[in-house]
Amino acid sequence: MNTLEIKGDWNITKGKLKQKWAKLTDNDLTYTEGKAEELIGRIQKATGETRETVEKELHHCSSSGTGN
Q: Is residue 29 within 8 Å of 17, Cβ to Cβ?
């Protein structure tokens, strides 16, 4: 994945990420459009997961279950 595309309601995505990785805080999940690299880095630091794993989970959480 070259670029991260956040789809749907970010609050729903944040909730799903917190379910997956309970140690994430609201600060870890602060997302500003165009700042995907920072978001991925914060999640990696907090969870110890690889970049690939974080990107896959972000994609999965932001594109599923939004009712769209």
A: yes
Distance of alpha carbon 39 from the chain centroid: 7
- pLDDT tens digit at each of 68 positions of the chain: 445 667 668 888 899 999 999 999 999 998 887 888 999 999 999 999 999 999 999 988 887 654 44
Ordered by start, the domain boundaries in the chain are 10-63
Q: Measured between alpha carbons, how far is residue 50 from residues 20, 39, 40, 44, 53 in Å?
A: 14, 13, 10, 6, 5
The Cα–Cα gap between 38 and 55 comes to 12
The token duo for 26 is: 């609201």
- Which residues, 6 or more positions from 43, have their beta carbon under 8 angstroms from its beta carbon? 17, 21, 24, 28, 29, 49, 54, 58
